[in-house]
Predict the structure.
Amino acid sequence: MTFSDTHVLVTGGAGFIGSHTVDLLMAKGCKVSVLDNLSSGTLANLASWENHPRFAFVGGDVTQDITEAMAAAVARHGPIHRIAHFAAQTAVPISIDNPVTDIEVNLCGTTRVLEYARRNAVAKVVFASSSAVYDDDAPVPVSEESSARPSSPYGIDKLAAEIYLDYYARLYGVKFTALRFMNVYGPRQDPSSWYSGVISIFLDRAAAGEQITIFDDGEQTRDFVYVTDVANAVATALLGNAGDGAIINIGTGVEVTINEITRTILTLAKSRSAVQYAPARAGDIRRSVTTMDKATALLGFQAHINLREGLDHTLAWVRTAKST
Ligand SMILES: NC(=O)c1ccc[n+]([C@@H]2O[C@H](COP(=O)([O-])OP(=O)(O)OC[C@H]3O[C@@H](n4cnc5c(N)ncnc54)[C@H](O)[C@@H]3O)[C@@H](O)[C@H]2O)c1
């Protein structure tokens, strides 16, 4: 099935998950416009599509009205039919230090995107939500019914944005799916930021033979989901009716300790990096893993890339990125 008549807006499409979603939507034949302020994303992530006739890049900011910024892309490809909304301030510690900025980007930004959707009769918005909405003390595995009681402004704003999505659906008929991602990893995840995912940081250090620091005792767990699996879930919800009106966890259902992941990374990278332990960081949760029932039932979702395979792909990317 091709989607040559479907014009999709991907906010934050120059970022890590957004750019993989763009790759998939382009491969499916959609017309794709990316709106991004390049605060953490890069045009290099979109280099394959730069001159493609179905692709447009729009420099723009979701904290402003995006109508004017979108005008040229709409004139070229026609009205927007569907929106994948990734643009966000993604660092939990920054949200704690500066909750107002987090509200401006993550909550007001989402509301601006919803306003655009309502005024332009966009059929559906898929929202990049997060497992950060859950109560740290919620028993694992977390399901969508688990207690949502965020421990950070980032989580609060993701949760509030979900409530806005539901409100716009009820009032204006803008359909939505909110996908609560677990820990996403894969190529293009920037390892240089202190707030990057643990896998991108550890692979980067292991490839360079540099010391790896594990906070706490390393027995804390995460549910790591590979980025192309996440992009698949987004595209399924975005391009049809699957998951309409639903909030769905996206992960693998597999719980892995940080010690296990470190050992696997060191083996794969044939690295002699030293491993040191440091005190636990405030706000880091002990166990994190999702149930898969709702994602499977509503989206037919299943993670296809297992951890070892995903780490292999990511390590190959880290090595290429380091050599260029
Ligand atoms: N990576 C994860 O593990 C994870 C987990 C849960 C949820 N999420 C969510 O998924 C989405 C994508 O995350 P990512 O890991 O790809 O991060 P990322 O930083 O790579 O991508 C975010 C993109 O949004 C852009 N952006 C930021 N502020 C903007 C603004 N005001 N206007 C326009 N563009 C702006 C950035 O330049 C970047 O390209 C985010 O909404 C994030 O909260 C990510």
